[in-house]
Amino acid sequence: MTKRHKTAKQLFSYPLYWAECYGVSPFLPTTREEMDALGWDSCDVIIVSGDAYVDHPSFGMAVLGRLLEAQGYRVGIIDQPDWRNTDDFMRLGRPNLYFGVTAGNMDSLINRYTADLKVRNDDAYTPYGVGGKRPDRAVIVYSQRCKEAFHDVPVMIGGIEASLRRIAQYDYWSDEVRRSVLIDSTADILLYGNAERAMIEVTHQMAMGKTLDELTDIRGTTIVRNAPPGGYTEIDSTRVDWPGKVDQIYSPYEYIPEGKCQTKDEDESDVMPIRVIPAPLRRGEKLDPEKTYIRLPSFEKVSKDPVLYAHTSRILHLESNPHNARALIQKHGKKEIWVNPPPIPLETPEMDGVFDLPYARVPHPKYKKARIPAYDMIKTSINIMRGCFGGCTFCSITEHEGRVIQSRSHESILKEIEDIKDKVPGFTGHISDLGGPTSNMYTLNCNDDEVQASCRKLSCVYPTICSNLNTDHSPTTQLYRKTRAVEGIHTVSIASGLRYDLAVEDPEYVRELVTHHVGGLLKIAPEHSEEGTLSKMMKPGMGTYDRFKRMFDKYSKEAGKKQHLIPYFIAAHPGSSDEDMLNLAVWLKTNDFKPDQVQTFYPSPMSLATAMYHSGKNPLKPVTYKSEDVYTPKDAKQRTVQKGFLRYHDPSNWQALRDSLIKMGRPDLIGHGDNKLVPAEEKDRQVRRRPQKAKPGQATGASHTSNRPTMEKNAAAEKARRKNNNGGVTATPTKRRKTKVKSRQQ
């Protein structure tokens, strides 16, 4: 079979830059004093990051910094600078090539605010976990400060915050569609996804004297243009309501025969003709993807029209396969945002090379004994793969890392275990994780290169597992056995998310996992129980969960272990009604789950679920003004109630749930018993009747002095009657009243 995969230059095949003579730094310098100790007069590249500097392959600044160092460049780090002035941005001097700016391992807004937009008090990527050490929208702020410090030095932005904002995107925090971050940051180029290939190519090209204006076609980059490049075919996808008969459209940049209206900008006199094809006519056209781009609706349009926004989101996701994706273009005012196709995934030897770089595996010494929570979590964990083909609509992993799985070799992973043993202080022999975006997609990819090269599916496992997908977990099972056999290793845990719909396809893997790598509890993420909501998440139904649970229980019993599954769920997801959450709560109680940690849907930039949240449309299908509507709970009170259904057992949620159940016509779920969701409202168990003035001779329970003789007489008669009726057993009135109240409450 002929391979149709795109190829790329091998990551470590470039000639080394002259500064490689300085060798490897114990840590990349963060001060002028450290630069002087290394004998450097300047840095070639300076990376600015919102995270504390931890020299570990789980931290982006360390990966890219060490990779550039391996290419021969001198790289400095400005970590968590004071953004209120330019002083910190000048502390390493002027970089010879460019500033590389990232918000850090997390989006700065997600890092700072909860899904309910409450300010978090902590930051796991900061010494002592202190919050507020990075600004909101850190990429924009850092980039602008770099420009202020050295206005003529190019600025490259990247990392997940920039990656998910490469085109116009809905911003949950301001409740509006914002421009591409490349425009707002005033940066010169944006790198999206795992950026090793793009960064190495851009850096070497700049070192050879080229300017960023000349680097227009590097995969994985986004740039600003004045006009589209000549010689291309444009697929015009700016509308969703094309008329039945579509005539050919003239491009403003195309040569128009004499006699027809034409205008030409002086700056575009050398632009080659562009052929424009309306999106409805593109089918059947054999177009060269290398010379084709798709025109998205402009920022001005999508910022005012949510339906066009959902349409744009669908196009972006359909153009995510690096082997067939075409460039995208989106007008922002008079400028054009040009998104080159995604980078070609790294091959296994390249992945090994990236993770085999000489990381110190500890925080920079300047932090002394300060605890950095994120480092504590991952210091003995190992990334074995990248990417995710699950396509969960609420997750941004696919938009950032892509759907093609990139895996390391067993040898590289075992070598990293030896590095951990040698370099991590106080290592006890426990590897805390072997995983990545998921724990069990290692080496899993399409069986057919030709099929993969042409595929545009949003998920390889939804609605069912693709017949072309390799689901053989044996390389992972063998890896687990090898790691357990390493001398000095007594425990290997699996903490990354498990795709149980894939795991059930390989019972031997489930047996290995359950027998040796579950420490009593295994976290998995069904996310919901109702098909309507699951279809908007692109997650499997509960039948798959039940199948996995049976396997889990069986192998736990065979191993002689008492182990439990801990399922995760999301409230207020697009498509989730109150009835859906009620049914999920009933499922939780029926299965005796009382979740402690639950989450409300968080509309992260660029995800498909965020497009649903903003637009009320379903971008999993072609979008029109009459296409499927998607209901999304947005009101803060309703989101709180939906979250409360997940914690039905928490007394603080009971009153809100009672009110909701009554409104939903389900008061039958209020009360005591296994078939009830929340208890009835608590009343004083001592029933107190309002005092009444008794008539002479009337027996009452009123304590009125004028009736005392009558009360005593009647009480004695009542006591005698009860004694006769109960066979001599006397029950006090108080006891009887309590019994009545108890019975009524039941």
Automatic annotation (TrEMBL):
This protein's UniProt keywords: 4Fe-4S, Iron, Iron-sulfur, Metal-binding, S-adenosyl-L-methionine
Per UniProt, the ranges with Basic and acidic residues bias are 668-685
Molecular function in Gene Ontology: 4 iron, 4 sulfur cluster binding; catalytic activity; iron ion binding
Q: Tell me yes or no: is ATP-binding among this UniProt entry's keywords.
A: no
Q: State whether keyword 4Fe-4S applies.
A: yes
Cofactor binding annotation: Binds 1 [4Fe-4S] cluster. The cluster is coordinated with 3 cysteines and an exchangeable S-adenosyl-L-methionine.
One Pfam family of this chain: Radical_SAM_N
Basic residues: bias regions: 734-746
Which residues lie in Polar residues bias regions?
Answer: 700-709
Q: Identify the domain of life.
A: Bacteria
Q: Known SMART domains for this protein?
A: Elp3
Where is [4Fe-4S] cluster bound in this sequence?
A: C388, C392, C395
The Swiss-Prot or TrEMBL record lists the needed cofactor(s) as: [4Fe-4S] cluster
Which residues lie within the region annotated Disordered?
A: 668-746
Domain (Radical SAM core) ranges = 374-643
Q: Which family does it belong to?
A: Belongs to the UPF0313 family.
Q: Which PANTHER family match?
A: UPF0313 PROTEIN YGIQ
What name has this protein been given in UniProt?
YgiQ family radical SAM protein
Please name the source species.
Marinomonas hwangdonensis
